[in-house]
Structures are given as structure tokens and as C-alpha cells.
Amino acid sequence: LLFGLASPDQVAVRLAESESLAENLRSQLGSPGVGISLVRGEKTHEITLGYANLQEEVLVSDQTLFSIGSNTKAFTGVLMAKLVEAGEISWEDPIKQHLPYFDLKEDYIERNATIADALSHATGLDRNDSIWKYKTLSRKELISKLKDLNFVEPFRDSYVYNNLMFTAVGMCAEQAAEKSWETLIDEQLFQALKLTSSSNWF
């Protein structure tokens, strides 16, 4: 919509409107800084507003790094798609095939929950984010805690958001590719997209 078939003058007006809207939202939400990239084909436009560091009065730039939270779930999903395309793993692989220590309260779900089930939040497992939030446990230790969680919905019947199941999927990728999740994300996504300043941890 921004670039399309619009004239340069029309694009300039739309970009100014976009920046004004972003600044109004930033102000209303009380966010110290915002970085936005508008992309269409080979054309890009960056909007940088506010501060990356309020105390030191460092302005947001096009090189400022932001934590993007659960948007990284899309990274894991794309990574799995690339591994599936390469024949290294299948959407229908049971998680337990790749992680023998994957234990749940329900034996049937433990044996049959697939990578696709985990990615689509279809296991019915309670999310219980307090387990991972303080990051004191290793990945394997986190997965070992799954057996203590209850099921709040029937298997493959409802959408129940669960961060730990994405941890399990990321670990399945590691086992299938014999590389760390961080290395896979860097090789398969960051390098391909030329995200030279981006970093990750899992």
C-alpha cells in the first residue's frame, strides 16, 4: 500500500502519515523507542522513534536491537519447514522419536504428540510459564518438567498456547540436524536474510 503504484509524492505523504501514526502509538503506550521497517520488494523504509537508552539518551537507529519475544516462534516454524523440505524431519514425527526423555502425564499423548501438534498449540497441555520465565533450568531440564503439567483441554481439540512445546520442537530440530538451535537459526534465517546485527538465545 505504501509503495504500490503511487507517485513519489504520494509515497512521501503515506510515509509521513505512517511515521505520525507510529509516534502517536509510541507515545500512548509509553514505549521509550520504536523501530519499524516497511518493505515492498527491493524497496525499504525505516522509521526510528524515541530512545534506545533513556538514561544515556541514545536514539533508536536502524541498528538498534529489540527483543521480539514470541515472534521468534515463527523462526522455529520456518526452520522446521526448511528441515522438512530437506527431508531431515517430518511434521508428523512424534516428538518422542527425537526426544526419548519427552514424558507427559498422559501416555497416549506422550507417544503420539507430533511436531505439527506442538507448533499448532494442539496438545492441550497447560502453559505454566513460571517454569521457564526465570531461565534457571537447561532445555533438557525444562522438558523434564512437562510430566508435572496437567492437560486443560483434550488432545487436538482446542488451541492451548504453550511455550515449552516450542522448546521441544527446537530441540527436535537440534537432534535432526545435529546442530544447535542458535546455529540453525543463524545459518538458515539470519544469513539468508542478511540480518548481520541480529542475535538469538534459546
- Mean pLDDT, to the nearest integer, reads 90
Low-confidence stretches: none
Summarize the amount of helix as a percent range.
40-55%
- Which sheet architecture does the biggest sheet show? 3 strands, antiparallel
One letter per element, helices H and strands E, the order comes to: HEEEHHHHHHH
Tally of individual helices: 8
What structural category do the secondary elements indicate? mainly alpha
Per DSSP, what share of the residues sits in E-state strands of 2 or more residues? 5-15%
Please list the strands of the largest sheet in the order they lie side by side.
Answer: 1-2-3
Total E-strand runs: 3
User: How would the global form be characterised?
Assistant: elongated
Oligomeric status: single chain
Rg result: 21 Å
Straight-line distance between termini: 35 Å
Short description:
The protein contains eight helices and three strands.
What does this structure look like?
- It is built from 8 helices and 3 strands; from the N terminus they run αβββααααααα.
- It is mostly helical and 202 residues long.
- A hairpin with a 4-residue loop joins strand 2 (43-53) and strand 3 (58-59).
- Helix 2 packs parallel to helix 7 and helix 2 packs across helix 8 (181-193).
- The mean pLDDT is 90.
Give the topology:
Layout: H1 8-29, E1 33-40, E2 43-53, E3 58-59, H2 72-85, H3 95-98, H4 107-112, H5 115-119, H6 139-144, H7 163-177, H8 181-193
Antiparallel strand pairs: 1-2, 2-3
Helix pairs in contact: 2-7, 2-8
